[in-house]
């Protein structure tokens, strides 16, 4: 599991840096200030959760690959990046307002992912005490 989700986390971090540079240099004069802020929010959450995915992959490697909670945490973190950041990128670049309906589902995926990760890590710690 570490190889797969660790690689996804690193790829998402790479994409967040590339998209951040694109936003700062390529979109600065093309988007309104409001839409540039939306794009930057997508980049910020993309990077935070890319790092989160890397941490979950490391935790999964330590906890054990068969822990379904940590596996679902990784899956939901990955999905949340696409739904949350992806919808913000699409909204800012297209200015199609209905795309914003998708964003909260990504936020919910992040919340559940962090909760599952915390629970899984907590249970692994308590069982070794």
From TrEMBL:
Organism: Paenibacillus glycinis
Pfam family, one: DUF423
UniProt keyword annotations, A-Z: Membrane, Transmembrane, Transmembrane helix
Subcellular location: Membrane
Membrane topology: Multi-pass membrane protein
Chief place where the protein resides: membrane
Family indicated by similarity: Belongs to the UPF0382 family.
Name of the protein this chain belongs to: DUF423 domain-containing protein
Residue ranges of the TM segments: 42-60, 72-92, 98-122
Entry superkingdom: Bacteria
């Amino acid at each position: 599991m570490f190889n797969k989700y660790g690689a996804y986390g690193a790829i998402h971090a790479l994409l967040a840096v590339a998209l951040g540079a694109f936003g700062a240099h390529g979109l600065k004069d093309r988007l309104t200030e409001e839409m540039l802020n939306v794009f930057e929010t997508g980049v910020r959450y993309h990077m935070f959760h890319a790092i989160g995915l890397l941490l979950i992959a490391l935790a999964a490697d330590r906890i054990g690959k068969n822990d379904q909670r940590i596996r679902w945490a990784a899956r939901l973190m990955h999905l949340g990046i696409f739904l949350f950041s992806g919808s913000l990128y699409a909204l800012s670049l297209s200015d199609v307002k209905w795309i914003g309906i998708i964003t909260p589902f990504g936020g919910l995926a992040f919340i559940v992912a962090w909760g599952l990760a915390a629970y899984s890590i907590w249970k692994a710690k308590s069982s070794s005490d």
